[in-house]
């Protein structure tokens, strides 16, 4: 049999077998666009300015959805009847100091398009308050197998909410290279999952992508607003020292969590190269995250392969806006 005919026969048989076995089809990924909004004046008198941060979100969201009216963007993404989790990251300890300003800006806009205060759940926003919001039901549900391991997820994630507005921080991570929108959902201890420590292998795989493809996670991802006002390029995810932090003055908005994290990875890698060049004694330490065997950022590509978003930087529209 000629090689061409052999390949056709083989691929045809494989396709038939895959259909017979119910092989899952890849879903169309969300729009691969990330809007990177910078504004050096997001602080006023040394404190975060909610109005300026709100302006950054509005301008970024309008550019993300190609609209002129911010309210129409929020109405497009969220229904007044929905219950929404505004998910921050407690591990970051509010090192940017902007959690309250972000809570105020985001909740004001959601309330402004008709969502009920009791249907907004602000979780893990260290140093911030939101009165009158919903109370998460943190009771754990049944055990769900994840390859050779498994986890239990809270009723808050599986049943109580309809959508997740994801507010991760821009920082590196000691197991996954970076920790962004994907991990902020998949490994949210107590808020979403019982004990993610057992799933913290180098690269965070294969478990992170398995969690992110679960229907009660995949279908609820709605909007990502990555806090890059201040960021961490080494010794993350904890904000252990200002030595490893920098002020980037940005928020990154995306519908695609994979694209958001791929852009974040690029930002952290570029900062590591820059700092290694400026400080020769750090060159051995600040190597590419891909060269760190204990924390390669393979989870981003794994999620892309499973149809959860775009992981190829060349196929992501990375829009940069600058406000005064």
N-to-C series of helices and strands: HEEEHHEHEEEHEEEHHHEEHHE
CATH topology: Rossmann fold
CATH architecture: 3-Layer(aba) Sandwich
* Helical proportion, percent range: 25-40%
What proportion of the residues form beta strands (DSSP E)?
Answer: 15-25%
Distance between the termini: 68 Å
Query: In the residues, how many domains can be counted?
Result: 1
Q: Per the principal axes of the C-alpha atoms, what is the gross shape?
A: globular
The biggest beta sheet reads:
9 strands, mixed
The computed structural class is: alpha/beta
- The overall pLDDT, averaged over residues, is 92
Q: Helix count, per DSSP?
A: 10
**What are the low-pLDDT stretches, counting only 5+ consecutive residues below 50?**
1-29
Name of the CATH class:
Alpha Beta
User: Number of DSSP strands?
Assistant: 13
Measured on Cα atoms, how large is the radius of gyration? 20 Å
Describe the protein's architecture and organization.
This protein is an alpha/beta fold and 324 residues long. The chain has one domain (33-322): Rossmann fold. The protein is built from 10 helices and 13 strands. Strands 1, 4, 5, 8, 9, 10, 11, 12 and 13 form a 9-stranded mixed β-sheet that branches. Strands 2-3 form a two-stranded antiparallel ribbon. Strands 6-7 form a two-stranded antiparallel ribbon. Helix 2 (50-65) packs across helix 4. Residues 1-29 have low confidence and may be disordered.
